[in-house]
Design a protein that fits this description.
Radius of gyration of chain A: 27 Å
Oligomer: homodimer
Shape of chain A: elongated
CATH architecture of the largest domain in chain A: 3-Layer(aba) Sandwich
Distance between the termini of chain A: 80 Å
CATH superfamily of the largest domain in chain A: Response regulator
Structural class of chain A: alpha/beta
Strand content of chain A: 15-25%
Helix content of chain A: 40-55%
Strand order of the largest sheet of chain A: 2-1-3-4-5-11
CATH class of the largest domain in chain A: Alpha Beta
Order of helices and strands of chain A: HHHHEHEHEHEEHEHEHEHEEHEE
Chain lengths: 343, 343
Amino acid sequence: MGMTESTGTGDSKEILTIHDVARELGVSASTVSRAISGKGRIGEETRQRVLQYINANSFHPNAAARSLAQSRTYNLAIIMPEVRDLVDMPFFHTCMHGAEEVAQANDYDLLVVTTDGTNLHPLERMVGNRKVDGMILTRTYENDVFVEYLKDAGVPFVTVGRCYDPKVLQVDHDNAGACKELTMLLISRGMEKIAYLGGGMDQMVNIDRYAGFRQGYEAYRKQPDKRWIYTDLATKNQISRAVDELLHLGVDCMLCQDDFICNEVVQELNNLKVSIPGGMRVASCHYSRLLDNYPVTITSLKFDIMDIGRKAVQVLLDQLNGKHPRPLTMLDYEISLKESTKN
Amino acid sequence: MGMTESTGTGDSKEILTIHDVARELGVSASTVSRAISGKGRIGEETRQRVLQYINANSFHPNAAARSLAQSRTYNLAIIMPEVRDLVDMPFFHTCMHGAEEVAQANDYDLLVVTTDGTNLHPLERMVGNRKVDGMILTRTYENDVFVEYLKDAGVPFVTVGRCYDPKVLQVDHDNAGACKELTMLLISRGMEKIAYLGGGMDQMVNIDRYAGFRQGYEAYRKQPDKRWIYTDLATKNQISRAVDELLHLGVDCMLCQDDFICNEVVQELNNLKVSIPGGMRVASCHYSRLLDNYPVTITSLKFDIMDIGRKAVQVLLDQLNGKHPRPLTMLDYEISLKESTKN
DNA sequence: TGTTTTCAGACAATCGGTTGCGCAACTGCG
DNA sequence: CGCAGTTGCGCAACCGATTGTCTGAAAACA
């Protein structure tokens, strides 16, 4: 009843425009627009009438038209590395879900873009396109091409993990601080000779963790022996060999840069029938499910990864809304003290 | 030299419009548009001149304007489950990357949307919004709310994995066929008593695999003993107990519904000091890196997960472009015959 | 050379919102 | 009762592409 001029087929795929709504309510399109946005002068009564109609008929303003008029897309892009190194992917994916959560809560949408880290084309297209209001870079290198490009294209963006340029918006966990605290804790528990097993020193996160380890020692005015320190581990074999050598050097504890290395270390110790923590103490600078498979629970640092994505979007939205967030956002961590370092 | 009327600040953040290009070349905007799209009447010479200018100045037509005019966004959405069950996430993420790959290759962008599988609001917004041309549903249930909603909203979409409605666009691996073939292969290798370890029978994929197992037996006009069959395994404990019981029943081989179950089975056999394949044969209906950790290599079915995402987008784009793809796309599999089933 | 056909390309309307401006009605105050 | 100030809302000009229609010139034909 009362359908004024619909085609009558009731095919349910009709999508309303702001003009339809206006006509139906006997007001002008601009009034409807103002009712929705809440901006401009509009009577409270009319506003409610419009809002009610809109909800009842589940009207949503056309995104393209809105974005053309406002020069704002309500889209963000998250730039992901290629699926090559599968070990790291869970990190990026978790991060992405965090980002998506906050984006959705703010009526933004999230575009995923995969790149090999060198090819600028996809980025150029998105920038020229104006398809997004801002971007999240999930992996950056020293003197990153993407960072440089976005900087002088004037596109708002935020990096996940520390960026070499301190002026750039960035969100990171306090890797250095966390590793320092963990190292100090181990020392305070009587471990004198702590070995460090790390690698991939071209990545910020690894640089920071290693720095934290050294700071932990320095805080006690001590120094680790050079022979206890590995910063170039890449393959499983290298890790096993390092474990062997460290056992011969008689270290008290093996501090592993990440869950992957820690996993190998524990397996190697198992192979060698070295018990944990009886024969050797082990700790990891990053927790993941990989460390759940052992009978002994592993002492580790816990970082909430989703939070990194959440915070990245929050900071980016602040930026877009003209607030001026501090460039560096540091996220909290948690030290999970378990059996593997009982002394 | 030769800059006609730029502001001269050279701030590099100026973004060209089609009109800028037109003015610069002394043609009309419509000519530029036609040069880009290749549609409509346009001289080859002019066309090249425009194209060249566009490339040189890396001009990209504004996405919002284009999408307003064409009623086409060149966006697709992929609907992902919440991060709850972490075991399954790699599947969805891999799938997503496949989708993104093909989308990008076709100048489409991919929006990620996370939902709990019941809340229609995000979907309604995207549909009303007209923010995407089509959607990919990564997880569907019996009588899925999303499927039903999209069907009668008339939005093009494709499901990853089989859908209860055969008319819906869907992409899946031939789970039933693969499991049938694997079962037959095992029987042909002399395994008479094959146990099946599965669970989660509310999911299409599990239903199909179990069906395939039965078909494999039927093809030989044989029947597995009821006591060899588990279709309700959920926890690690249940799996260990099943393994125990099956050992007592003296089965020849344990066929595991997925990598997760297989992992547990192998670990339990290890615990019980049962050697593979000496003491027991093991096969998995799904390969993953989980199965790489053992000294013995595991016979399994290999499905290329990225391919599912790729194919989903291809099919969806075909649909959008007016081709009429068959509703069901079956993807190929590979049987990886390894030591764990040597007889 | 005159007429018809072909073709390149300009003009203008359109997509569906947003927003500055102006007009009318209403308020309050002297 | 008159005038300034406020308020509610409509008009119309955008935003930057696409596309149907129209024109003028060149090509083809007689």
